[in-house]
């Protein structure tokens, strides 16, 4: 996936995102100026701007989109707006990538890759109630449909560095949610909305991003407040109780300890939140 030279426009323009559209590979920390001092200089990250990468992915699927419209018997000249794109985000450590013998720069031995897959594209024709799916990824877990967005030399358990590098990516994603992409597909300008689903994170990564204690924690679940003891006694009555906002509030309690509690009491109050969550991972 190398972003090509596709002209596109966002309505309204994306907030907090550079306006030049010929962006290729950028330094992973760009857009995060306020915190660069807190990050070790040897942090190496390279990434695409999120919207440029999404445009490139859609242009790659141009033939599939046109084919889908034809198969559904939709007149492509009437389908210029109402396109919805569902994107699956994935993020995972890539293990040890150290160079065993070379004279290159000294880098951390671990790498993390953040990537996305276009899962489906649907369109709602002007006079129709229901949206019609015109593209569905047949192999959503395949290496071939998964597009790298950001590559980083960092250990996935380094919460601070991950925050600094993926922070701008999250800011761009947030801006994209509030806007529509205007892009030429099949010779006509069409308008796309995006929805993001974070289903490609393993548990370790979710814990990292949501500021939870690591795998040895007594709080076993990344979705609810069960302890190991409670979960072993009762495997049924679980409800999803955690939200990103709630974890942020708990982190503030953890940081400020407003009730002047002992470490143990405080830990019981925040139920395993130990760092500031920085990324909302929405399951489907």
UniProtKB/TrEMBL annotation:
It comes from the Eukaryota. Residues 85-217 form the V(D)J recombination-activating protein 1 RNase H domain. InterPro entries: RAG1, RAG1_pre-RNase_H, RAG1_RNase_H, RAG1_ZnC2. Residues 219-281 form the V(D)J recombination-activating protein 1 ZnC2 domain. It holds the Pfam family RAG1_ZnC2. One of its GO terms (cellular component) is endodeoxyribonuclease complex. Residues 9-81 form the V(D)J recombination-activating protein 1 pre-RNase H domain. GO terms for biological process: adaptive immune response; B cell differentiation; chromatin organization; T cell differentiation in thymus; V(D)J recombination. One of its GO terms (molecular function) is histone binding. This is Recombination activating protein 1. It comes from Pseudohomaloptera leonardi (Hillstream loach). The lineage of its organism: Eukaryota, Metazoa, Chordata, Craniata, Vertebrata.
